[in-house]
């Protein structure tokens, strides 16, 4: 097991009707002027936004609204939010929504606290985040895990560059998690969320543990990750039949946080490789994030199988209960699962069709950031390897 520092200061408030505590939590932090960040239709149509407004009014908390955050959140919209927050004098950012809304709120918080810096400089590592104003969130989609994570993703729509930013300043002060707020989601969004939380765990689990080819000296973290995966697989099927099943939706909501709050990757080094592939697809084609990941995972796994067979054997046994000396059966079972929940496993199923060589080369170039990004953990990947994995999904 590699050395690590684990710090997750986000206060989790989990259960029915927990959104009623939002005013109290904000006041406990000494904040008085709140920018409420949200998405498009659902938060209004469900009545949740009006409910939150009434709570803030009753607690004498000033607020402004900033809506229309879209899936695959954009840099330009986050910049608009920064301007609005500064003009309002916001001292707190409240996200009401899923990962896209929360990531946008994080960007706005950083920009508000650093008005002299363009927020994209943080995402491109030109500048380091050294201060930010606090954020909190009311989660409505179990997926990204952004409610307790140290990361946030934005897309620069001018350059089609989609990037993640890891910093401890991304940790929300509190995360209000009421599974009932996910009951109105379309089943497609439930499935995309399942795919995303699986991949947050996969991209850590399939990493390198120092001094061990097979990762068997990282037993505690492996056991946690495997339990999270089993729980997602089981409850995902239940949720896809009945999205109002409180027990299943609550398990998924908590797994979404556990999968991305760094717990499932402690003691490992990883490239977050399938996310890198998926980011290029969602940036270029504006497809759902979770769908872009499932479309790539099987190709990546099969490509790596020969060199990392023992890890896939462990996965097959400990997650799927399959005794398999090839490692392939666990991969096939996972691909089959994606199909069961109506998630794509190749480009055609993703809805983008078979792509030209020119597009595949462009995706490859962008994925490795013109050679500046090196994939070296788990199974080292060259530019040719990255191209070949994209090509395997190009059916």
From TrEMBL:
One of its GO terms (molecular function) is oxidoreductase activity. Residues 9-179 form the Alcohol dehydrogenase iron-type/glycerol dehydrogenase GldA domain. Keywords: Oxidoreductase. Gene3D superfamilies: 3.40.50.1970, Dehydroquinate synthase-like - alpha domain. InterPro entries: ADH_Fe/GldA, ADH_Fe_C, BDH-like. Its EC number is 1.1.1.-. Residues 196-392 form the Fe-containing alcohol dehydrogenase-like C-terminal domain. The keyword Oxidoreductase applies. This is Iron-containing alcohol dehydrogenase. It comes from Brachyspira innocens. The lineage of its organism: Bacteria, Pseudomonadati, Spirochaetota, Spirochaetia, Brachyspirales.
């Amino acid at each position: 097991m590699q050395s690590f520092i684990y710090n997750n200061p986000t206060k989790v408030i989990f259960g029915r009707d927990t959104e009623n505590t939002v005013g109290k939590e904000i006041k406990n932090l000494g904040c008085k002027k709140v920018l409420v960040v949200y998405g498009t239709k659902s938060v209004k149509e469900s009545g949740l936004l009006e409910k939150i407004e009434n709570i803030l009014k009753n607690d004498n908390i000033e607020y402004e609204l900033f809506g229309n955050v879209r899936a695959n959140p954009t840099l330009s919209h986050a910049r608009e939010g920064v301007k609005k927050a500064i003009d309002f004098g916001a001292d707190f950012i409240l996200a009401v929504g899923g990962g896209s809304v929360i990531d946008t709120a994080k960007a706005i918080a950083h920009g508000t606290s650093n008005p002299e810096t363009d927020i994209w400089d943080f995402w491109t590592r030109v500048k380091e985040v050294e201060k930010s104003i606090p954020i909190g969130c009311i989660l409505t989609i179990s997926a990204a895990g952004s409610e307790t994570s140290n990361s946030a993703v934005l897309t620069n729509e001018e350059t089609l560059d989609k990037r993640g930013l890891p910093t401890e300043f991304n940790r929300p002060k509190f995360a209000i998690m009421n599974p009932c707020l996910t009951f109105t989601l379309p089943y497609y969004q439930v499935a995309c969320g399942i795919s995303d939380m699986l991949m947050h765990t996969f991209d850590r689990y399939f990493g390198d543990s120092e001094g061990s080819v097979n990762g068997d000296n990282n037993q505690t973290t492996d056991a946690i990750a495997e339990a999270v995966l089993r729980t997602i697989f089981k409850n995902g099927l239940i949720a896809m039949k009945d999205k109002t099943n409180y027990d299943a939706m609550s398990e998924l909501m908590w797994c979404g946080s556990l999968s991305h709050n760094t717990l499932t990757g402690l003691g490992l080094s990883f490239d977050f490789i399938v996310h890198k592939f998926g980011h290029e697809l969602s940036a270029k084609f504006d497809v759902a994030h979770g769908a872009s990941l499932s479309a790539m995972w099987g190709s990546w796994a099969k490509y790596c199988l020969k060199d990392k067979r023992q890890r896939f054997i462990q996965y097959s046994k400990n997650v799927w209960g399959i005794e398999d000396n090839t490692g392939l059966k666990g991969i096939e079972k996972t691909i089959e699962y994606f199909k069961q929940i109506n998630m794509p496993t190749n480009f055609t199923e993703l809805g983008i069709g078979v792509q030209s060589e020119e597009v595949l080369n462009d995706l490859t170039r962008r994925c490795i950031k013109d050679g500046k990004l090196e994939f070296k953990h788990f199974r080292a990947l060259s530019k040719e390897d990255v191209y070949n994995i994209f090509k395997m999904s190009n059916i």
